[in-house]
Amino acid sequence: MSWCWIAFVEDRPAGADAAASTTTGDGRRVGTLAVWLRRAKPVRSARRMDLRLADPAGAAATLSLVLPPAGMRLPFDDVALQHARRRVLAETPFDGVSTLLADASHFAGALTVARGEAQVARLPDEPFARLFAARVLHLGEGVLGSVAPPAGPTIERYGSAQPWPWDRFPA
Question: How many structural domains is the chain composed of?
């Protein structure tokens, strides 16, 4: 599986491969979501995300951005996190979902992409929002696309350095 870097920053950073402003439900600008398609970590706050979700031609979307509190290290083996992933697989799919990683074995957040009234209405109850507080944000076009849901969860002990979801093994 391939991954890219994603970070929530104040303004569009130089060298980002895609970026767009985010706003709250009442229209207040709260920052920029940026994506980098490179190997080296571009900014300190960057996390790894499933590369298939990055799309410089992607339509505007509503996001649920879940980040653990500073200093919190939740292992991917945690029962609550495993339950959230099972719920993602069992429920009607969103346009895209990816966990975020800072290292090979700890949950560093999740990003859920919703488009259309039905998906947006489900965001307050999206599975990862039950782990930590979610920020629901509106994202401009040109950053995130749509990704089909995976066939099932991976087992972190074999490839935990990759963001979930992923539905096949490397050749």
Answer: 1
